[in-house]
Amino acid sequence: MDQARSTISKIFNGEPHSYTRFNLTQNMEGDNSQVEMKLSSEIDEETGGNGVGGHLNHNSNRTPYVAQKFGRTPKNLCFMAATIFLIFIIGYLIGYLVHRNKDLAPTCATSALRYEDVSVAHETGAAPLMDWDDVKKLLAEKLTTSSMDAVLGQLTSSNHRAGSPGDEDLGNKVITKFKEYGMKTWTDEHFVKVQDPPASGYNRIVFKNGSEERPTGFLSYSANGTARGAVLYAHYGQEDDLRQLKDMNIDMNNRVMLVRAGRISFAEKVANAAKVNASAVLIYPDPADYSIGENSFYSSGVNHLGKYSDEYTEGKVHMGSGDPYTPGFPSFNHTQFPPVQSSGLPNILAQTITTGMGMNILRQLGGRTQPNGWGSINRLGDESDVITVEVNNVLTEKRINNVFGVIKGFVDADRYVVIGAQRDAWGPGFGASTVGTSVLVELARSISDMVENGGFKPRRSIVFASWSAGEYGSVGATEWLEVRSACITYNGFKVAASPLLHSLVQNALKEVNYDKDKSLLSQFGKNNWESAILEPLRMDSAAYPFLAFSGIPSVAFRFHSGSSDYPHFSTNLDTRENLNSVTASQVPQLAVRAGQFAGHIALRLVHDHLLQMDLKKYNQLIRSHVVQINGKVKAVQRMQPQLLPKALTVKWLIMASGSYSRASSALAADIQNSDLEDIEMCRVINDRIMTVERNFLSPYVSPRDSPFRHILLGSGPHTLKALTNHLDSLTTANPDADAELFRNQFAQATWTIQTCANSLAGDIWSLDNEI
């Protein structure tokens, strides 16, 4: 600029031989072409003083030119006019370039800068957009039944327990395939503490004066020791089941609960039993739940069940996920943390038994009649039905490896979707892990080929993750989250998902064909798809910690048969032959459908400018909770006024709910009015969308005490569901209810919702500060 001012000054001072040269060059490192302005002094330097400038200064004895006052001569007037015109041109070009630089900010398409009829191709850095219909067609072409069947055969393993040589070998196969597909790969190593069955010795049960039974299955993270007490049949061990027993005035103290597998996780069954002071829990697979011989209840023996009678089941009873001995932080080698353990570890014994063992106990129970609908054998058990349970599990440290491959995005490479599958299993694990791992590998191959040879350029990255130690409670996935804290995970057709993803799930159901003439939506959800297909995300799902622990929108899905689940998950009978028998040998075909469904969701999330997430879905969920809480608060104030005075109002919770509703509507309006060609704007809006789930994690509870901190979909006293239950206890003046604790939790939940609304609003001047 000093040179420019000097040159202009020389012009005004009449130095006749100075001039300015404009040179159009292309900036090879940036996004914008530029005009380079070289002044006469620069040219003098480049030519070593030769040329016009050098000629003027060649004679050192020349008398300096003295500026003279301009007269109004024709010559001077022409010179002034030329000078003014040249200044105008310089100003116009500078203004044009500044304006042009703004216009040429990175956009979502290739543009060209024209200068004197010469077109210069200009890459903005954005991925050329492929039509969504073409993306769907490409995926359908790449993901085939024959290739899926081949991978299923290659990845089938009879023994791949977490941390075993079989698990490591399978992980090596997965990473080798990722490398073959041209993906960047890496592994994530953790040293975790898990509980295995006794290496020497055994767990055992003795019912009445019968013979000793030694179940092969076990429940990881059970308390060890011996418990002796009367058996009490408790249906599925759900809170409602135990409430019914309590309403019947049945004493549950020190009882050994006999419960059926299913409906809720093993961990929840044991936690519920511990709350009523049971001494132990025995869990068995009931034939009525799995369509494997309902009539055998009436037989005198168990031989009618055939192979199912001796099928053993394994699981975990840690009320959490990840390594329970490093809650909230990752398990690296030789990590030095204070001795601590998760509050979700049970303090009572828990053991799985076979169907045959469970039915043998049920037939001999006396006592009172079961509530309606609890089963064909109608006795609950009495004080004489004594059983001894002994558990001797062993705590051990294992090295596990998560395996990753990534397809990098072309615009927002640092924003990514995770597609994950559990790799390990306690038995053959064909349904539990082999199918999922095969779908993962085939999706990686198909999408890599779409990028390499099909012209598809994802805007965001896709990370393919093969988790280890999933059987112990999503340990591998949770440990990785504890290191990093979008995301898609899958188990195998019911769908459980964050409300933000419901619209995306519905679109995928419409677009993926179940057969030639029917989509998944028309096959499974003709009328009300939400009630027919959606289900709550269970705690034992690999997707659950992503959502409830880390606040990442997640989805899990599974194929199922009618009203019953596949009976062999986490058992010694989870083989390809048995899975084929319940699917009419359609495993490869169903795996392809699963891959297409997961692929459609993942590809949509990396294809579109803006994330397809429905922010208003949470409005309905929040409002339903607010309505319930409002009604129950009034009931307590009416029935137990000494506990909740009239001064306590739900007004602030209602206002927080309204703030979220307005903020989500405002962001929806911003999305409608946004310029999809503006990369930075798209990125800002997507970041605002992604904060929603994370801001529903309560900041007022510790991950050690309540790892699943999501106030709407998590688990613990901080959730809105827990507030509702607490109000029920206050209504009945339950001695366990604490009005002061409720008021604190109520305030914290209210402010968590308000904070989420504030974050969603974006700019500080957009915040609704009424509360």
Write up what this structure looks like.
With 771 residues, the protein is of the alpha/beta class. Helix content is 40%, strand content 15%. The strands form 6 sheets. A 6-stranded mixed sheet has the order 6-13-8-9-10-12, with helices on both faces. A 5-stranded mixed sheet has the order 5-14-16-15-17, sandwiched between helices. A two-stranded antiparallel sheet has the order 1-2. α5 (132-142) packs antiparallel against α19 (587-607), α22 packs antiparallel against α24 and α23 packs antiparallel against α24. The chain is globular, with a radius of gyration of 35 Å. The model is unreliable at 1-71, 85-125, 292-306 and 482-492 (pLDDT under 50).
Give a quick rundown of the structure.
Its main location: membrane. The protein is of the alpha/beta class and 771 residues long.
Key structural traits:
6-stranded mixed beta sheet; lipoprotein; transmembrane; palmitate; 5-stranded mixed beta sheet; single chain; globular; alpha/beta; glycoprotein; disordered N terminus; receptor; 771 residues
Strand arrangement across the biggest beta sheet = 6-13-8-9-10-12
Query: Strand pairing plus helix content: what structural class?
Result: alpha/beta
**First and last CA, distance:** 53 Å
Number of helices: 24
- Main sheet characteristics: 6 strands, mixed
Contiguous runs where pLDDT drops below 50 for at least 5 residues: 1-71, 85-125, 292-306, 482-492
Radius of gyration: 35 Å
Report helical residue fraction.
Answer: 40-55%
**Number of DSSP-assigned strands:** 19
Beta content comes to: 15-25%
Shape: globular
**Average pLDDT, all residues:** 80
